[in-house]
Predict the structure.
Amino acid sequence: MRKLHFLVLFLLSISSIYHLVDASLHVKYLPGFDGPLPFQLETGYVSMGESGDVELFYFFVKSERNPETDPLMIWLTGGPGCSSICGLLLANGPLVFKGDEYNGTVPPLQLTSFSWTKVANILYLESPAGSGYSFARTPRAIESSDTKQTHQVDQFLRSWFVDHPEFISNPFYVGGDSYSGRVVPGVVQQISLGNENGLTPHINIQGYILGNPVTYSNIESNHRVSFAHRMGLISDELFESLERSCGGKFFDVDPGNIKCSNNLQTYDQCISEICVQQILLPKCKDDHVLPSRVPTLPNIRSGSRRELKEFSGNDSSSLPPPSCFTYKYFLSAFWANDENVRRALGVKKGFGKWSRCNTENIPYTYDINNAIPYHVNNSRKGFRSLIYSGDHDMMVPFSSTEAWIKSLNYSIVDDWRPWMMSTNQVGGYTRTYANKMTFATIKGGGHSADYNPAQSSLLFKRWIDGEPL
């Protein structure tokens, strides 16, 4: 088996000869933003495989501090199948949508004060093929999986570094959130194995960062019930009955257990109107449930009304109001599908409709059910890691992340304590382990960094610079 593994690595190293980095584009202006960009943005495609039948699109933002020596991080958005625009324009990049009510023109952008690119070079990758502006030329090529992503990201990076040799010596990190919690630890392991087996260029991998990471479904599903109880969303009596009838296991329940099933139905009713990404926010429609009727938006041009119908889910009657957190998802669809935007970014002609999350149209095999073994292997190799959780996220509760970290059985070197903002306010809580893993919560945070961007940015800056939180 070990010989077979090395053979696969060898074949991958041979195939990497055929990976082509298309001519990159230095973007100086973006529709929706007034004036030249005050940061350096590059976009491009990398062709994967011997026939180049997979084209992975990327955005590269140079650090605003010292790009020659600052760390370089590749950022993978979750999904699987969500665009890296979620990071670039929604979570931790240098621009965000203003959030104005849509009027039929290109949604306006503004600079942020919390971009992670203030202290690091960030490579936002659209992975797998079918995500964002990435695509495949054949039905077979678009097929993907967790493990296939780990190989393709490693191959992408080695090709990208050939075209960007000035960054080879920079400390390198892998980052991501949500579903990429399954993929990022595997990418770190794959890069490490490739380095050990002589793949070039050698990547100066130092560690990884994950936000609200999907890691092991059994743990996460079981912790949602206790999270709901701790947050006062279900009663003591229901929680105690759930514990007794379901035996503390709420994932893949035996349908013959009527009492457990009935309790879970009551639980579902209690949380049905909760925004699970951030339980304190109102539940709003997201970009997958856009309206089929638009007469409530009189200031939208007729051409844009047709576009709105095209993007709609045909099952709702009104847009989310601009006050909704998810309104920016709606704006991102109009921005990313605008032809002027595509020309400015160098998106290849003939590319179809962009979707923020194309999860239903990518043939995908979920073959990393449990990412914990990857964390163990990465810890043994000495890689540092930051695992952070918005403490009001119910999709991947902080308690589930804390549970699998504790299961690694590493000793604590810095016990549970608050970490502070520069305003002397508590930003969250943290604990550090002997395997160089730091766990941190973001107080009031949700499922991704954009729910509390100022706290997330400060957390990242301190960790990436090697400072105590």
Summary: Residues 1-18, 287-317 have pLDDT under 50 and may be disordered. Residues 1-218+328-469 form a domain with the Rossmann fold fold (CATH 3.40.50.1820). The CA atoms of residues 227 and 378 lie 29 Å apart. The radius of gyration is 22 Å.
